[in-house]
Design a protein that fits this description.
Blueprint lengths: L2 E2 L43 E3 L2 E10 L2 E10 L10 E10 L2 E10 L13 H6 L4 H8 L8 E2 L17 E10 L8 E2 L3 H10 L5 E5 L4 E5 L4 E13 H4 L3 E2 L2 E18 L2 H9 L6 E4 L4 E22 L3
Parallel strand pairs: 12-13
Antiparallel strand pairs: 1-7, 2-3, 3-4, 4-5, 5-6, 8-12, 9-11, 10-11, 10-12, 14-16, 15-16
GO biological process, one term: proteolysis
Keywords: Disulfide bond, Repeat
Protein name: PAN domain-containing protein
Length: 312
């Protein structure tokens, strides 16, 4: 809820014009030239005025960095008693490119403010989630002294929506892990925030037992894992299929093998999960993956990891 509160006394000044005094043009009279008035360099609490627009600037410490936020107030005329529209923005440099981040839009002094304004992708490029963008927007200062909490803002009509996530607990997503993965010692929410900020991340698996985050560039198959939680952006969530594979360690499955080759374990699981012919697989200590189209039984066998598709 907005509350009245005087704005901060930021170091601001009026922009105006200075003129030299006109000299006495009477002939024969000495001209008493006076020095032009010197600008007052001391800080004043007045906002900067440019073309009937007044700006209030403020530096805030947010998310471990200093952000300069500026609010502009447009007046219809020079003598208007109050502003007509207002907005708040900040700037950031990413890879040598300056980005304008529009935080808040106020259509009138009485209208409820709308935030955030720039697209979710723009905020993500500077490392901000939607929630963090609203929090930064709450730091803006206004000429009318109103303050807004992050929950006070309305949504901007027509603005692109942030990538929504579909969460499935107890499942691990198979897919291509992004570089420098996993991210360790993070919460599930921190893992999801990281994925939201990274345009290459389409899905993630969070290992609850080790607080580890595995961000993925794609995902198609889900395998049962009680220690995992999968979260996927809507763009890929509809393509995810839950595999009936049940896994065992130090166990070999006896049956009819139809394909065998050396690979990594994840690719062996993927090969069986995506092949309708495959009823199970064995992966031994020599990294040999054997796909089976018919299974008979299973038995203990040290060093072999196996998977069997459940029939019910």
């Amino acid at each position: 809820m907005a509350t009245g509160e005087p704005p901060l006394a930021d170091s601001l000044s009026h922009r105006g014009k200075s003129e030299w005094p006109k000299a006495d043009k009477s002939p024969g009279q000495p001209q008493d030239l006076k020095k032009p008035p010197q600008p007052d360099l001391s800080p004043t609490p007045n906002p900067v005025t440019v073309d009937f627009t007044k700006f209030v600037h403020r530096d805030v410490f947010f998310q471990g960095a200093t952000w300069s936020v500026s609010s502009g107030h447009q007046f219809k005329t020079e003598n208007s008693p109050t502003w007509d529209t207002a907005w708040c923005y900040t700037r950031r440099t990413v890879n040598g490119v300056d980005l304008d981040l529009q935080l808040v839009d106020r259509r009138s002094p009485s209208a409820n403010p709308q935030a955030p304004v720039s697209s979710p992708a723009t905020f993500a490029s500077v490392g901000l989630t939607e929630a963090q963008a609203r929090e930064l927007a709450s730091k803006c200062e206004w000429l009318d002294g109103l303050r807004f909490a992050s929950g006070d803002f309305d949504q901007l009509q027509g603005r692109p929506k942030a990538a929504a996530f579909v969460v499935q607990d107890g499942w691990d997503a198979l897919g291509h892990d992004l570089p420098n993965i996993p991210i360790r010692d993070v919460s599930f929410q921190q893992c999801q925030n990281q994925c939201e900020r990274d345009s290459q991340c389409l899905a993630l698996t969070y290992n609850k037992a080790h607080s580890a985050c595995f961000m993925k560039g794609n995902a198609t198959i889900l395998i049962r894992d009680d220690h995992a939680t999968t979260s996927a952006k809507e763009v890929v969530s509809g393509n995810l299929q839950q595999s009936p594979l049940v896994f065992a360690k130090n166990t070999v499955i006896v049956g009819n093998g139809y394909s065998s080759g050396q690979t990594i374990y994840a690719d062996c699981v993927m090969a069986c999960a995506t092949d309708q012919r495959c009823a199970g697989f064995n992966f031994d200590a020599n990294k040999v993956c054997t796909l089976l189209d018919r299974t008979v039984s299973s038995s203990d066998f040290r060093g072999v990891s196996s998977g069997l598709k459940a029939t019910n």
